[in-house]
Design brief:
This protein is about 75% helix and about 0% strand. By secondary structure, it is mainly alpha-helical. It has a single domain, classed as Orthogonal Bundle (Globin-like). It is globular, with a radius of gyration of 15 Å.
Length: about 140
């Protein structure tokens, strides 16, 4: 099974156990990165969190798969989160939090193959974010 299929499968399996990943993902994010709590307003933030998570999952699935366009959201969001003052390590950590949340939900169904696919994906996402930093430091534009 391809990495893309394994990533997609992890979401499908999790959906059988959990109707909404949002509270689980953000609980883990805030436990591991308490500084992130202040980045969300108190009113209406549940809708924002849910929307952010949906967009992120769509980007993950596209990035792991055919890369038809949604994956570009990752690079765009790096820039917009820079404007919000979000540290790059926190931006990258969000993807790892999603993976660990899925791993917790799946338990024994989280196989070595799924883990390897996620680790590869997380390294690639981190590389994009770090390459973007290097391009910014060099004063060049992101590669389209």
């Amino acid at each position: 099974m391809s990495s893309a299929n394994l990533i997609e499968r992890s979401f499908e399996l999790a959906a059988a156990y959990c109707d909404d990943l949002t509270p689980l993902v953000y609980r883990r994010l805030f436990e591991q990165h308490p500084e992130a709590v202040a980045m969300f307003r108190t009113e209406g933030s549940e809708l924002v969190k849910g929307s952010m998570l949906v967009l992120t999952i769509e980007a993950i699935l596209d990035f792991a798969g055919e890369r038809r366009g949604n994956f570009r959201m990752i690079e765009c969001e790096v820039a917009s989160h820079d404007a919000y003052g979000t540290p790059r390590h926190l931006f990258v950590a969000f993807f790892a939090v999603i993976a660990r949340t899925l791993q917790e939900i799946l338990g024994v169904e989280w196989t070595a193959e799924i883990d390897a696919a996620w680790q590869k994906l997380l390294r690639e996402i981190e590389s994009i974010v770090l390459d973007d930093i290097a391009r910014a430091a060099a004063g060049s534009e992101p590669v389209a």
